[in-house]
């Protein structure tokens, strides 16, 4: 088979690259970032036994993955705004959602590829069809490469997507504001006790506090607010104290150990607006090109995006390995299954959340992001 050209070395693109490598299919990945450490990779991801872990298995990396799992982090509690513990689930080591740091997962995949597979500092600016399923990819520096099979794994703002679809992401109506508390057991003990050994969720209508105990005793918080974008635009996030005070104001009257996750942040608060592609986004088959992960089906965070990106990568890799002489058959098989997954993604995410939280009152379940009452 010809070399597969992947744009984007996120979890989706790298899982695809690794599965192709396992099947001895040549692959090259072009990545905009300058190096694996050029940008902080975000927090912990729970990797699910029904999608993310299946992808890791297809990549032949289960043993390496188990070595990255942070013990005890599947513990989960739901608190009320007054700090009362409403639900508590311990991590007994049997859960299907072990947690690992995103940067570690990415490095695991990078380490499992031949040196030179990923070409760093290669930002794609666009791509055009040359006919016969071939594409010319143009980089920001003006250079070009020709791809026999092109895969856009370049995330929300994909430069490959326009070859397949006119859809562009729109604001999803919610945003996260991210903070970190370091050495929390000693420096922020009340907040550390509230979060416990794993993750905390304190949901209320239109707002929630999510926090994770990451490696060591770092607490990573995502404050979730349902607000229009211009509400956030009016806050000066370059002034950390002002922004922190404005976000904390939305949680007036909440327990101090919860608001401390915002007000005691050791890093400036970072705004992360959520964007989404249309639900069930799909396209007609275009020879020689496809998409995986957020490029194909960006959704507001619901705990599935990274898992689905890895699963897409693995499924596409397996389809190409199964049809070495017929790229179009492989792409058709991959896309049809992926479109079906996408059309059911919200219902699936809600079903898995219910499985996890099934024994809690519906009124509380309805507040949990990703859960929809009618499903
Ligand atoms: C705040 C937040 C929290 C989240 N939490 C979770 C969670 O707990 N669990 C979960 O499963 N999902 C979570 N997600 C969703 C998850 O992060 C994404 O769904 C996942 O990263 C998608 O992977 P990907 O490989 O498709 O894209 P990305 O991870 O976005 O990777 C795309 C790669 O392409 C590169 N790239 C982009 N443009 C170009 C270009 N023009 N040229 C070359 N390279 C380019 C980027 O630098 C990047 O390396 C969260 C998302 C957010 C925003």
Structural topology:
Elements (H helix, E strand, L loop, with lengths): L3 E4 L3 H12 L4 E4 L13 E3 L5 H7 L3 H7 L7 E4 L5 E5 L9 E3 H10 L6 E2 L4 E8 L2 E6 L4 E4 L1 E4 L17 E12 L2 H4 L1 H7 L3 E6 L2 E7 L5 E8 L2 H5 L6 H10 L6 H8 L6 E7 L12 E3 L2 H4 L7 H18 L4 H17 L1 H13 L4 H4 L10
Parallel strand pairs: 1-2, 1-11, 2-7, 4-13, 11-17
Antiparallel strand pairs: 3-6, 4-5, 8-9, 9-10, 12-15, 12-16, 13-14, 14-15
Helix pairs in contact: 1-4, 1-11, 2-11, 6-9, 11-12
The chain binds flavin-adenine dinucleotide.
Outline:
This protein is of the alpha/beta class and 375 residues long.
Description of the molecule:
The chain has two domains: 4-71 and 97-168 and 278-356, 3-Layer(bba) Sandwich (FAD/NAD(P)-binding domain), CATH 3.50.50; 170-276, D-Amino Acid Oxidase, Chain A, domain 2. The protein has helices at residues 11-22, 52-58, 62-68, 102-111, 184-187, 189-195, 229-233, 240-249, 256-263, 294-297, 305-322, 327-343, 345-357, 362-365; strands spanning 4-7, 27-30, 44-46, 76-79, 85-89, 99-101, 118-119, 124-131, 134-139, 144-147, 149-152, 170-181, 199-204, 207-213, 219-226, 270-276, 289-291. The strands form four sheets. Strands 5-4-13-14-15-12-16 form a seven-stranded mixed β-sheet, covered by helices on one side. It has a five-stranded parallel β-sheet with strand order 7-2-1-11-17, covered by helices on one side. The model has no long low-confidence stretch (mean pLDDT 93). It is α/β, with parallel strands linked by helices and 375 residues long. It is globular. The protein has 14 helices and 17 strands. Flavin-adenine dinucleotide binds at residues 7-13, 30-33, 45, 123-124, 153-155, 159, 176, 272, 293-295, 301, 303-307, 309. It comes from Sphaerisporangium album. An FAD-requiring monooxygenase active on some tetracycline antibiotic derivatives, which leads to their inactivation. Hydroxylates carbon 11a of tetracycline and some analogs. GO terms for molecular function: FAD binding; monooxygenase activity. Its cofactor is FAD.
